[in-house]
Design goal:
CATH superfamily of the largest domain: Glycogen Phosphorylase B
Shape: globular
Distance between the termini: 6 Å
Largest sheet: 6 strands, parallel
Oligomer: single chain
Length: 366
């Protein structure tokens, strides 16, 4: 099987550049021939619409040339389901659809609500995109139900996983004294945008400290919400208990995981497979998060996590307190989460993707 893979630029932040390379190497170990090419660009800085259009145009032509020259079986495009990506992907697939390769779109997150609120043009492009693709990978059952419920054929959609890189394990540091010299450390890791739940987390820390819990919040990541959250922490007079570290290297993130007692991630973003949650599993961290997308598929209440209501600091604080107060619960979650992490290795998920590819290609022996 020969596969051409559309990837983001190496400088682009996010889960794709973390989870896809080990998965692709495992596909090669299973005998697939894999070639990676840049499909999306790191456009953090504002660029003109003309330049953006040129990027899309040149990329589509590059992929069309490659497909014609090398005769790939499958084109695997890493993308997402939101307005800008729909515009880009619909244009690209128009040029790529008749070049011999089947097309598999992997949506790393999807705004399923867009199906019901899109204008005529975007709605037309959505229908074209789904009709043209031979298969679409979604990161949660929730997303699949949304597409199928809107009338798209169920057989076109596949629920897939992202791959984790398992790191060398050190002992999980249990925290026994939550009111003495060693505080209970909460960790929040994310791009800092409003829908990730950082402000709700800061408010929850305030509630917990008012109730006598000696907690400290470590915030890793950067973005538009940082300054608002810093101001909120000062206003609530908990600034010394909320530490903002900005964007840090992956190796440093691991050390924070190891030194923390609980991951807090009350997101109400259009998540697919939030890597922060699944990376936390292998470090044995108990988790408090919202019951959406992949978290709802793979995490069990009371076994791996406690689910909190979105946009509700009081409920978030209550769930954090429940875990702090229950040593047996923490230990059970820690053990279960370490075991669950092993289900998302590249070695485990590569055969699942190959089965999907073969189904799309209609050849079990490919």
């Amino acid at each position: 099987m020969k596969i051409l893979v559309g990837m983001p630029e190496k400088t682009a932040r996010g889960g794709i550049n973390a989870c896809e390379p080990p998965f692709l190497r495992e596909l090669e170990r299973h005998g697939a021939a894999v070639r990676e090419e840049i499909y999306t660009f790191d456009n953090d800085a504002k660029i003109s619409m003309l330049r953006r259009v040129r990027q899309v145009w040149k990329t589509a032509l590059k992929f069309r040339r490659i497909l014609r020259e090398e005769k790939f079986d499958l084109l695997h495009i890493n993308t997402s389901f939101e307005t800008k990506a729909i515009l880009r992907d619909a244009f690209s697939l128009f040029w790529l659809k008749n070049n011999g390769a089947k097309i598999f779109l992997k949506f790393h997150g999807s705004d399923v609500e867009l199906l019901g609120k899109a204008n005529f043009v975007i709605g037309f492009l959505i229908r074209y995109l789904i009709k043209t693709a031979d298969g679409i990978g979604l990161l949660s059952s929730e997303e699949k139900r949304g597409f199928v419920g809107f009338g798209f054929p169920e057989e076109k959609f596949f629920v897939v996983k992202n791959a984790l890189i398992l790191f060398a394990r050190k002992s999980f540091p249990p925290v026994e004294n939550f009111s003495g010299e060693t505080p209970f450390r909460l960790i929040f890791v994310s791009r800092l945008i409003p829908t990730k739940g950082l402000l709700e987390t800061v408010r929850a820390v305030s509630v917990l400290r008012e109730k006598g819990f000696d907690v400290v919040l470590e915030v890793l990541g950067d973005g538009e919400t940082r300054s608002v959250a810093e101001h909120l922490a000062k206003t609530l007079e908990i600034g010394e208990f909320v530490n903002f570290h900005g964007h840090v290297a992956e190796e440093t993130v691991r050390e924070f995981y190891r030194a923390s007692g609980l991951l807090v991630f009350p997101t109400f973003h259009i998540e697919g497979f939030p890597m922060v949650i699944f990376n936390a599993l292998q470090f044995g961290l108990p988790i408090v998060t919202t019951k959406i997308r992949a978290a709802a598929d793979y995490l069990k209440e009371g076994e791996n996590c406690l689910f909190c209501a979105p946009k509700n600091p009081a409920d978030l604080a209550e769930k954090i307190a429940e875990i702090i107060n229950d040593k047996d619960l923490r230990q059970r979650m820690s053990e279960n989460n370490r075991a669950l992490a092993n289900e998302f290795t590249a070695e485990k998920i590569a055969p699942e993707y190959l089965a999907i590819y073969r189904k799309i290609l209609g050849d079990k022996n490919c």
